[in-house]
């Protein structure tokens, strides 16, 4: 199929790419930085950005203006005219309704999670690219927002664990005697888990990594962690874990529960795309840990890996602190935004050709990411 060109959507022939302020509670990231703004302008497109859109990420309006952006006083001024809207969290339904019909929307959109949002997108004929649907291929690595944001989340999770723990992470030799290093177990060895392992190691802790995919052993050990082998494998397709059988899960739970009695800190990061987070750490396991132990559940947003997790709260379970932080990537807004914006720029470059929109639906990355999916 030949590429579909949409140059006629702007009076000047140049595509207009826009960004408005993020309005999700607690969201500090922005989908475009002055760096990527400059690159888009150099690529021949116009850039419009709502004033103040980057302030929570420490990017000023002046920096965007110097990069070539046109500053708009209101979100409506951007929504009504742009051909491509870049975002972090999905816009509110009423904001989608104010977008130009047939415009393109790129970000973490999760349309299947909200029927009203899906209806709003379809009713306006929005060409939606939920980047969580991006194929996990070598070519797509530079566009992989899930990986870039998971790295920041894993880093922050380890820092939260160190802050909550009533003990040092590293081994110390002092006049008052020797302090043993904390024992940290990171559950899940995806991008977030590996970053958590690396960060906890830098803080001096004794670190183990657990994942039901045996191929992660080498990655964990390369970061200085010890691979915790519980004798249960759930290797699946595409680098993700498969669902465990009831028998496998019971054996995993038994062995893990015994091991946790000697662990000081758990950082949970396990996730299965499109499903609630797997429950790995039971409340009984938490109760069996030493008083003063800590659990930081990075999977809190999708239900948590720990049964005792309460999203957005830190609770006490028999002397063990269980934290369920939300939107951790946003807490590192400067670098998280820089990585996210580069991901979006790289993806947008697939359909922004010579300053105009040109969708090549033979391109797997476009065809598999667009919602609803189009076959090449």
UniProtKB/TrEMBL annotation:
* GTP-binding in keyword set: no
A single Gene Ontology biological process assigned to it is:
NADPH regeneration
Q: CDD domains this protein is in? A: Rubrum_tdh
State the UniProt keywords alphabetically.
NAD, NADP, Nucleotide-binding, Translocase
* Cited SUPFAM superfamilies: Formate/glycerate dehydrogenase catalytic domain-like (SSF52283), NAD(P)-binding Rossmann-fold domains (SSF51735)
In which domain of life is the source organism classified?
Bacteria
Q: Which GO terms describe its molecular function?
A: NADP binding; oxidoreductase activity; proton-translocating NAD(P)+ transhydrogenase activity
Give me the reactions it catalyses.
NAD(+) + NADPH + H(+)(in) = NADH + NADP(+) + H(+)(out)
State which Enzyme Commission number(s) the record gives. 7.1.1.1
Q: Which stretches make up the Alanine dehydrogenase/pyridine nucleotide transhydrogenase NAD(H)-binding domain? A: 162-324
Q: Does the keyword NADP apply?
A: yes
Question: Where do the Alanine dehydrogenase/pyridine nucleotide transhydrogenase N-terminal domain residues begin and end?
Answer: 18-153
Q: Name one Pfam family in it.
A: AlaDh_PNT_C
Q: Which GO terms describe its cellular component?
A: plasma membrane
Function in brief: The transhydrogenation between NADH and NADP is coupled to respiration and ATP hydrolysis and functions as a proton pump across the membrane.
Q: Which family does it belong to?
A: Belongs to the AlaDH/PNT family.
User: What is the protein named?
Assistant: proton-translocating NAD(P)(+) transhydrogenase
From which source organism is this entry?
Marilutibacter alkalisoli
């Amino acid at each position: 199929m030949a590429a579909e060109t949409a140059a006629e959507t702007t009076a000047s022939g140049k595509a207009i790419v826009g960004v408005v302020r993020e309005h999700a509670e607690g969201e500090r990231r922005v989908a475009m930085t002055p760096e990527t703004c400059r690159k888009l302008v150099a690529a021949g497109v116009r850039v419009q950005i709502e004033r103040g859109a980057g302030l929570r990420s420490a990017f000023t309006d002046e920096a965007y203006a110097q990069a070539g952006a046109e500053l708009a006083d209101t979100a409506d001024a951007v929504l009504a005219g742009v051909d491509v809207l870049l975002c972090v969290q999905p816009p509110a339904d009423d904001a989608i309704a104010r977008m130009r019909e047939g415009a393109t929307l790129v970000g973490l959109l999760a349309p299947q999670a909200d029927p009203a949002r899906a209806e709003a997108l379809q009713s306006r004929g929005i060409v939606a690219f939920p980047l969580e649907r991006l194929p996990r291929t070598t070519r797509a690595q530079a566009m992989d927002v899930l990986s870039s944001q998971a790295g920041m989340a894993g880093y922050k999770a380890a820092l939260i664990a160190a802050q909550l723990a009533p003990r040092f992470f590293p081994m110390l030799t002092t006049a008052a005697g020797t302090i043993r290093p904390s024992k940290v177990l990171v559950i899940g060895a995806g991008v977030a888990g590996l970053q958590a392992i690396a960060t906890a190691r830098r803080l001096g802790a004794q670190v183990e990594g657990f994942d039901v995919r045996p191929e992660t052993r080498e990655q964990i050990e390369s970061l200085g962690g010890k691979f915790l082998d519980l004798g249960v494998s759930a290797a699946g397709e595409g680098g993700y874990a498969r669902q465990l059988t009831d028998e496998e899960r019971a054996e995993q739970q038994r062995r893990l529960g015994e091991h946790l009695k000697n662990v000081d800190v758990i950082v949970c990061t396990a996730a299965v795309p499109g499903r609630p987070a797997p429950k790995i750490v039971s409340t009984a396991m938490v109760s069996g840990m030493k008083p003063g132990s800590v659990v930081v559940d990075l999977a809190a947003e999708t239900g948590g890996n720990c049964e005792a997790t309460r999203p957005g709260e830190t609770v006490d379970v028999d002397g063990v602190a269980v934290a369920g932080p939300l939107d951790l990537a946003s807490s590192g807004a400067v670098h998280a935004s820089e990585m996210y914006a580069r991901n979006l720029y790289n993806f947008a470059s697939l359909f922004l050709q010579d300053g105009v929109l040109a969708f090549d639906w033979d391109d797997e990355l476009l065809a598999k990411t667009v919602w609803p999916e189009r076959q090449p």
